[in-house]
Amino acid sequence: MDDPSAEAAAARKALAEHPFGDDAAEKRRQYVAANRDRIREMNRLWRSEHLDRARELNRDSMRRAAARRHREAEVRARGRERAKRWRVEHPERRREYQQRWVAENREKVREYYNRYYEAHRDEVNARAAARRDADPQRTKQITRQWAERNKERRAEPQRNRRSDPEIYQSELEANAAARRLMRSLSRAGLPPKRLHVATAAERRANEHEADAYFHDPSRPEHLRQFTVFAESLTEHMLKNGACMREFAEAYVETRARMGLPPVPVENIVYVRAVEIVTEQMRRVDLLTSRDVAAAVRSTKAAVGREEQRQQLKDLVKMIVNDVGRNRERYYFDSEFENRLRVNRGLARVPIESLMVEIALRNVLQRVPTDRLTADDARHAARIAKLYIAASTHKAKSRVDDRIYLGLSDR
């Protein structure tokens, strides 16, 4: 069998001496298609025998390809520069060309837009929403202008919807109910119902703020610090509020004697409390001024509720004790009050209620009630009445027991 490398060399020599025409090229393509494996094997054998030459040829080919790519890139860059300079020098002609091309290729432009929108739907919608949110006034103006231009188009869906008798009747009933509510509020002297309809821009802003808040990696530690700080501040004020208030009052008096501007006592109390609690906490690096203000508001509310509860408790206790000390006098006063009511044609009132009412009038002058309201006073009176009724029932039971024991001894 002949050497494949020799055959390949002879074939290349014949090809160089006798260039192919069209028929020869077609025959060569047919030959290559019919002998792919043989040609591949011949190339492999030649490369194995002439490895250095093959590598040299490969390097030369790569250098020529790189140089060709470099030349083509330079040509394209020069073309872009020329086109850029031309566009800068002839803006009107460029604009005319673009407008003419768009006018001549409406379908193609629409196809391009639709294709891009389908591939980048979320990005396009996000950019449009950001553009609307950046200038809400212009967005409202554009919306109003569109509504003015398309009145009939906007009215058509409403007419189609109200063509259904049930839907139309339900809308009439809802409108009538709204008018009745407005008239009722007006007769009662109350303001009309007001609803703030959040716009799409406001909803997107709220969602963005919520996402930023809840997806913040430092949020758990931030919430922990805020919770501990608020609880510690409340506990400190409930435990040491009185002494801190005394200190603040003395501080304010000292400032007044020195001729300095007055400062509210409440501010001094909570500023000092915040300083003390902050020094006691291990970490407060994530707390902001808004967090501190929120904790102070929460503490003030908690302290107010505790003071109200304590004043209510003291008021009930004072009423019960006052009735216990002056039961006989209050009893006769209550009987006298009931007789006067009967003479006026009014119904009698339970003795316990009148006794509690008399005691309440006397006690209110001796106990602090700045945190209590009229409803709290009535609630305290009801509780005191229950205590008094229970104590009266127990005393009566003890008297009955003594009578029974005395009778049994006889």
TrEMBL record:
Region (Disordered): 1-27, 125-167
Biased composition (Basic and acidic residues): 14-27, 125-138, 146-165
Biased composition (Low complexity): 1-13
Protein name per the record: Uncharacterized protein
Organism encoding this protein: Cryobacterium ruanii
Taxonomic placement: Bacteria, Bacillati, Actinomycetota, Actinomycetes, Micrococcales
